[in-house]
Amino acid sequence: MFKKLSYKKEGMDDEKFVREFEKKVRNTIGEYRLLNPDDNVIVACSGGKDSTTVLHLLKKFGHNPKALFIDLLIGEWSKKSRENVEKFCKQNDITLHTVDIREMFAYSICYIRSVIQSKKKLRNCSICGVIKRWMLNKKARELCATKIATGHNLDDEVQSHIMNILRGTPRTSIGLGPKSGIKEDKKFVQRIKPLYFCTNRETERYSRLMGFPVIYEPCPCSVDAFRKEIKEWLNEIDENGDIRLNAMKNFGNITKQLKALEMTEKEIRQCKICGEPSRNGVCRVCSLMAQT
Ligand code: SF4
Ligand code: ZN
After folding, report:
1. Tens-of-pLDDT digits for all 292 residues of the chain?
2. Which runs of E-coded beta strand occur in 41-163?
């Protein structure tokens, strides 16, 4: 079930690498039934290598994806990312939808974050990630999308699992896995991760070989020191990727059990403030925005 990583085969020629990488993504989509022929899939595009790779491959595999760019207004970085997504979609004849954070929240993410952080000790990505997911789900639903494809890769997933365990919040891993969501809800658009078995290194190699117009530098606001440490540690101890693969296998089993437990517990409700799906009376975005 779990694919072999290509770390050991890094010496393989580019043509073979591209073929194997594409085969792995296609197999992940097939084996985990990430997409049905009648799905209306939208790719959450950040202008980075991962989401651009997903967009390119879903188009190549005939899934007719649309692109959605959420403009968080993080200065030049957002501006350049938006230009790149626009360029890629134009070159590849892909419909692009954009949404500006000010349309939904009246301010840039930087302003919202600074106000929340003046009252609550939260990391940049914790605030931004919650808001982004909320915007993504709402906009995708408005566009009648049946699936949202994201660029999360194997490295992202393993890092998240380890962080959740070390922080003592393993239940947070319920949202991980190739498909998001525990229970179906008509207001919740399922998120899928076609790069679930692709390492960061492989995706970067693929993206560079394809010559995608993307930014390779990380977001200037991603100052999550804990994630950075886990990432560096994993790179140090796991040169050929075997540890990541084994870890993923075990984490996958734990997540399955947690999901089964969650099935018997909380129903998905609607947030009484914004009406979006939530397991609590008030969703995380509305709780955060109450701080502003
Ligand atoms: Fe937001 Fe963090 Fe992603 Fe930057 S890296 S866009 S701050 S979630
Ligand atoms: Zn809400």
Report:
1. 334 444 445 567 999 999 999 999 999 999 999 999 999 999 999 999 999 999 999 999 999 999 999 999 999 999 999 999 999 999 999 999 999 999 999 889 999 999 999 988 888 888 999 999 999 999 999 999 999 999 999 999 999 989 888 888 888 888 788 988 655 678 899 999 999 999 999 999 999 999 999 999 888 888 777 888 898 888 888 887 788 888 888 888 888 787 777 666 667 788 999 999 887 889 999 999 988 7
2. 41-45, 66-71, 96-100, 147-149
Centre of ligand 2 from the C-alpha of residue 12, in Å: 49
45 lines ligand 1 (CB under 6 A): no
Which ligand approaches the C-alpha of residue 105 most closely? 2
Rounded distance between C-alpha atoms, residue 251 and residue 163, angstroms: 12
- Sign of the four-CA dihedral 107, 111, 113, 118: negative
Distance of alpha carbon 34 from alpha carbon 22, whole angstroms: 15
Q: Decide if 164 contacts 173 (C-beta within 8 A).
A: yes
Give the residue whose CA is nearest to atom 3 of ligand 1: 125
Q: Is the dihedral of CA 219, 220, 224, 228 positive or negative?
A: positive
Cα of 170 from ligand 2 centre, angstroms: 24
For 225, other C-beta atoms within 10 Å of its C-beta total: 8
State which residues have CB under 5 angstroms from ligand 2, the bound ion: 271, 273-274, 283, 286
Q: How far is the CA of 40 from the centre of ligand 2 (A)?
A: 25
Q: Residue whose CA is closest, atom 2 of ligand 1? A: 125
Q: Are 262 and 182 in contact (CB under 8 A)?
A: yes
> How much distance in Å is there from the Cα of 21 to the middle of ligand 2?
39
> In this structure, what token pair is assigned to residue 142?
């408005």
**Strands, E assignment, 46-95:** 66-71
Task: Report the separation in Å between the CA atom of 289 and the middle of ligand 2, taken as the mean of its atom positions.
Answer: 9
